[in-house]
């Protein structure tokens, strides 16, 4: 598997895994936009997803693999870059970079924290005690979970 030992190959794997995650976010956004059509529409969408059963869990496993590939190779490539030139430069000249490339590690950490919170709330149904009693009484009512 030369793609795993080659720097360019690992960057390609990062790009492909990132692309799959981007496709998922766009699809997820489109599905969640049913909230604008009311409570019934969002709850119907949520029920449809939950009715897929094992397919949803297989897809979650695939997305977890994509996340793992993306994070692991991102960390490995960064560590290799640092090891390639362990000395600090006398003059720290900024390369031509943009804001997103300079803050990518922090936005990644923020997205990961949001992902954990999101999965705890909507998948595992771990909710704080501050949520209204109506949400606890109707655990399948995703609409109420969103607006609470």
Note down, in words, how this protein is organized.
The relative contact order is 0.10. By secondary structure, the chain is mainly α. The chain has helices at about 1-5, 5-30, 40-50, 55-85, 100, 105-125, 135, 140-145. The radius of gyration is 20 Å and the shape is elongated. Helix 2 (about 5-30) runs antiparallel to helix 4. The model has no long low-confidence stretch (mean pLDDT about 85).
Termini separation: 49 Å
| Tally of helical runs | 8
Q: Biggest β-sheet, characterized?
A: none
Q: What portion of residues belong to β-strands?
A: under 5%
Mean pLDDT, as a whole number? 87
Q: Specify the helix fraction band.
A: over 70%
Structural class category? mainly alpha
Low-confidence runs: none
Q: Strand-and-helix sequence, N→C? A: HHHHHHHH
Number of strands: 0
Annotate the secondary structure layout.
Elements: H1 2-5, H2 7-32, H3 39-51, H4 54-84, H5 99-102, H6 104-123, H7 133-137, H8 142-147
Helix pairs in contact: 2-4
Entry keywords:
148 residues, mainly alpha, 2 domains
Short description:
The protein is mainly alpha-helical and 148 residues long. It has eight helices and no strands. The termini are far apart.
